[in-house]
Automatic annotation (TrEMBL):
The chain crosses the membrane at residues 21-45, 65-91, 103-119, 131-151. This is Jg15972 protein. Keywords: Membrane, Transmembrane, Transmembrane helix.
Length: 160
């Protein structure tokens, strides 16, 4: 049986060359990651400033504390991803295939974890949220295909 692989693309979005496309996608990802981190920080501040009287009615079994800690952890992960996105843009600009490969592997791992979480919570999602998650996954598979195509264009041997 043959091996199933992602397609190798010649252009990003049918317009840009692969290097420019990777840089644009990396910059857009870093901006979106930063904005999401800022939004979550404001959410965490709002949670922290919630009056004790409202917390007691909502906080059964310490759920408020778990939610607050998970938001803080997720913000930390997002800032790490922001830095990695900027490193990726620099690596594409300098054509550092080793760094790009590691970033792509990191992104695949994050995507697999996201798919697992998506499949676990899919039955509780509304139709709009389900469609947005499917579009997010499709965009990420396209992003990985673009990065892999760029890697193939600069380094023919041993692409992920």
């Amino acid at each position: 049986m043959g091996r199933m692989e992602l397609p190798v693309l010649d252009k990003c979005c049918f317009v840009l060359d692969l290097k420019t496309g990777c840089i644009v996608l990396g910059v857009v990802n870093s901006i979106l990651t930063f904005v999401l981190a800022v939004i979550l920080i404001t959410f965490a501040v709002d949670l922290k400033d919630l009056p004790e009287t409202k917390r007691d009615g909502v906080d059964e079994g310490g759920m408020f504390s778990i939610l607050y800690i998970s938001v803080i952890i997720f913000v930390t992960i997002l800032f790490a991803k922001f830095v990695l996105d900027l490193l990726f843009v620099w690596a594409v600009y300098k054509e550092k295939s080793g760094i790009i490969k590691k970033y792509c592997i990191f992104w695949i791992v994050v995507l697999v974890l996201h798919i697992i979480g998506f499949l676990k919570s899919m039955s509780q999602m509304s139709a709009g949220h389900l469609i947005s998650q499917i579009l997010f996954l499709a965009e990420n598979f396209y992003y990985i295909a673009i990065v892999r195509s760029f890697l193939k264009s600069i380094n023919e041997d041993g692409v992920i």
